[in-house]
Design goal:
The protein is of the alpha+beta class. 21% of the residues lie in helices and 31% in strands.
Length: 266
């Protein structure tokens, strides 16, 4: 039976009971982090916990456990699961509400759940389209944290699949191409790698930061017209990176095999 870590205790998943009044369930009032596990090693866990606390601070959420406790929980789940390659999800919500309403008066008892599931390697390559059904809101603070509200991303992914693509690139309110549904975008134009800036409404991905530290990458705005000049592109997140080999029917060359990206996840 699968084990989880729920508010300080290891439990079988059937014994972890979420309150029907939990605001994460009723209002998506919470945040999460997804961490890659390789055997018993959690990749970039320190950075994920730092971002978890930073995001929690922005939403006035409390993290009542210290980093050592959370690391012990993560390693314990990895050790017990023995998946080899895992996706660890840390979910923090404001917890159960005493009464209905958009905001709560006074402190709440937060819910912190950590789960571990098997994770396959990213696909070698994928085709993408430009999402037309929704936009990324660059003016919202939620665009720069891993909020539980993933509605726009879900709509964009559904559109991509309905159009025969694996993923969608999302536009913001200024018509800039900003990100994929679950990852940051890197595009090569005239030999220079470019990734959209945080001000465009992107999540400042941990993998994005690692990649920018080992490659010559500029932050710059990308329009749809700019995509016609792209000769290579890839999408990154904390579970891996994948080549983009087609954008709106235009073929691109695979590039990741030539780049120092895969080794960052080891």
């Amino acid at each position: 039976m699968t084990q989880v870590w729920y508010n300080g205790a290891f439990l079988d998943e059937v014994d972890a009971r979420l309150s029907i009044a939990d605001r994460g369930f009723t209002l998506a009032d919470g945040i999460f982090e997804t961490v890659l596990g390789i055997d018993e090693k959690a990749i970039w866990l320190t950075e994920h916990l730092h971002r978890l606390r930073d995001s929690a601070s922005q939403l006035d959420l409390r993290v009542v456990f210290d980093d050592q406790s959370l690391e012990t929980a993560v390693i314990g789940l990895l050790r017990n699961s023995r998946f080899g390659r895992s996706a660890i999800r840390i979910t923090l919500t404001r917890g159960p509400a005493a009464k209905r309403g958009l905001w709560v008066d006074g402190p709440s008892l937060p819910t912190l759940l950590i789960t571990c599931a098997p994770s396959s390697r990213m696909a070698e390559s994928q085709s993408v389209v430009i999402a037309r059904s929704t936009r990324r809101n660059e003016h919202s603070p939620l665009s720069r944290i891993k909020s539980l509200n993933y509605g726009d991303n879900i709509l964009a992914r559904r559109e991509a699949l309905s159009r025969g693509a694996a993923d969608a690139l999302m536009l913001n309110g200024q018509e800039h191409v900003v990100c994929a549904t679950v990852g940051n975008l890197f595009a090569r134009i005239a030999g220079q790698w470019v990734t959209p800036p945080v001000s465009d409404g992107i999540l400042p991905g941990i993998a994005r930061g690692k990649i920018m530290s080992c490659m010559d990458v500029e932050q710059g705005f990308l329009s749809e017209a700019d995509l016609s000049a792209v000769d290579a592109a890839f999408i990154s997140n904390s579970l891996g990176s994948v080549d983009v080999v087609e954008i709106e029917g235009v073929k691109l060359s695979p590039c990741l095999a030539e780049l120092p990206v895969a080794e960052l996840y080891e």
